[in-house]
């Protein structure tokens, strides 16, 4: 069983991500896994125009490079919408514990999430934005 570790408010959310994720949550309802965590980020995050978001912020479609616990190797994931998720290729859903933990954070910050009975954490070392999603292409 996976669950989310609460995070502080103030994530950076693009207007484009806000519109698409709000629609996703409205259509899928509160029973979607991770819905409450993403809804919190949308409600309490700092909303910016996509063109105003500084490089290094984890937005939808971004490739994120992480350094995890000491016994875990560095990893790369891409934050995607649930229908595009494929863990084998590193494409993680924004509604997954890790995805919800990363959404809206920036390089240098640490994401925390609960999975498989323990709390995990990873520091964001690099973010490459996917410009198509950052510029408003619908998911």
TrEMBL record:
Cited Pfam families: GreA_GreB
Presence of the UniProt keyword Protein biosynthesis in the record: yes
All copies of domain Transcription elongation factor GreA/GreB C-terminal, residue ranges: 56-127
Keywords: Elongation factor, Protein biosynthesis
One MF term in the entry's GO annotations: DNA binding
UniProt GO BP: DNA-templated transcription elongation; regulation of DNA-templated transcription elongation
Superkingdom classification of source: Bacteria
InterPro entries, sorted: GreA/GreB_C_sf, Tscrpt_elong_fac_GreA/B_C, Tscrpt_elong_fac_GreA/B_fam
PANTHER family in UniProt: REGULATOR OF NUCLEOSIDE DIPHOSPHATE KINASE, TRANSCRIPTION ELONGATION FACTOR GREA
The name this protein goes by in its record: GreA/GreB family elongation factor
Species of the source: Ramlibacter monticola
């Amino acid at each position: 069983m996976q669950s989310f570790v609460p995070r502080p408010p103030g994530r950076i959310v693009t207007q484009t991500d806000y519109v698409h994720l709000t629609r996703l949550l409205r259509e899928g309802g509160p029973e979607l896994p991770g819905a409450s965590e993403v809804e919190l980020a949308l409600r309490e995050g700092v909303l910016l125009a996509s063109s105003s978001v500084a490089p290094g912020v984890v937005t939808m479609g971004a490739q994120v490079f992480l350094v995890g616990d000491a016994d875990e190797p560095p990893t790369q994931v891409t934050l995607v919408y649930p229908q595009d998720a494929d863990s084998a290729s590193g494409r993680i859903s924004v509604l997954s514990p890790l995805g919800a933990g990363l959404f809206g954070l920036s390089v240098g910050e640490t994401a925390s999430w609960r999975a498989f009975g323990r709390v995990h954490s990873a520091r964001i070392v690099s973010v490459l934005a996917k410009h198509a999603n950052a510029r408003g292409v619908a998911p």
